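Researcher: Let's try something more involved. This one mixes different molecule types, so please make sure each is placed in the same coordinate frame as the others.
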Amino acid sequence: MSNQNNTFTELCAGYVLNALNESEEREFQQLLAQADEEQLLLYHELKAAASEIATLQPGVPPSPSVKKKIMEVAEASSKTKSENAAIHKMNWYRLAVAASVLFIFTSIGLVIYSSNLWEEVQSKEAMISQQQTTIERLESEVQRKEELLTILEARDVDLVMMDGLADLSPNGYGKVVWDKESGNALLQVANIPSVPIGKDYQLWFIVNGQPISAGVFAVDDPGRDNFFKIEQLQSSATDGAFAITMEPKGGMPEPTGDMYLLGNM
Amino acid sequence: MLFFILTTIGKILTKDEERDRELMARIKTRDTSALSELYDNYNRLLFGLILSILTKREEAEDLLQEVFIKIWQNAEKFDLERGTVYTWVVTLTRNRSIDRLRSRIYKEQKKQSTSLDDEDVFHPLYSEESDPLENTILKERAKKVHQALDQISEKQKKVLQVAYFSGMSQSEISEEFDIPLGTVKTRMRDGMIKLRELLARDIEL
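Model: All components are placed in one shared frame. Result:
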């Protein structure tokens, strides 16, 4: 046995019997902290062997009050622990309820928010659609105006003024700017009644007493000037007249309805 | 290390220890009936041990109460891998008894009220007429310790008993019995090693 083991064993025997002085006790505790497996086993076995010495003394019964006091303390602490556990559980229960309420309110809030958001999206979509329609209408208008401008830009055009007829459109006004070369014409009308449902106005070019249909159109706002483009109005005639009649919707091969405007070339 | 300890513990795992481990497991779950049962099993052994060290009955009862409350409060600290319930409980009891004995206040009280003559220190030991311990297993255990100590020299045996039951340090034993300190240390070491060898054959250490 090495000196170190001798020291360990000697100190260990004293230590398990609490018989060392303070400095020896500290020394052994340091050795124990660095002990190998064999030394640790020795320590545990010596401690167990020492505890067996206790059986050498006779058992002496303590007063019954000792057990009573011990059990009172144990039962009180056990009760406190279970009460704490109950409080703990109750706290969890409260927390769970609070979390549920929060969840419900959050869910309701989200539903309302998403509903509002959906309505807002719908409203924006409608607005976009409306603006798109406006853009398309304006583009169409610009295109039509450009086409009309093209007619007006032509250097050699015929201008035919039409007047309203006394009975149906006394203040009626009409004008045809005709570019014979391209066969396109510009029709401008104002102060003639709006066409009823199922009806259209029809422009006629009358040459040698024969009416030639130049197209149909509708007026829905008599108060303002209305412009229309007339295509494929091919004629080399230098004499004739333009007239506007009200016909069944889509027009007729020959005039059948009342005349609202009339003007000679 | 763990393997060796487990091997040693498992070598002779008595029914007594199995019962104690079950009680400790129940105490850990705050089962007061288990504490009551443990008390019934050990109270006379532990009270006799405390009384042999402190000699004052009132003080010993106070400490016994303190020990069992400590067991109740510190049951979680009991480690099966480090030994038996018996060793844990007895070591805890003796350590607290020694602490109480060595506290300055108690020492002052003791100086005034008790003497340390040999008869007072030893009277509980080897008394064939003494009350039996709580159960037959503890009595059987005591018998084996008696048998083991019979195989140890008288001088070694005396040093072990004085140290164990009086709580005297090696220096105090040296002074009290006029034995050189080195001799006390040697007897204590050799006696403990021998006791360990003898008990290891029959009792779970």
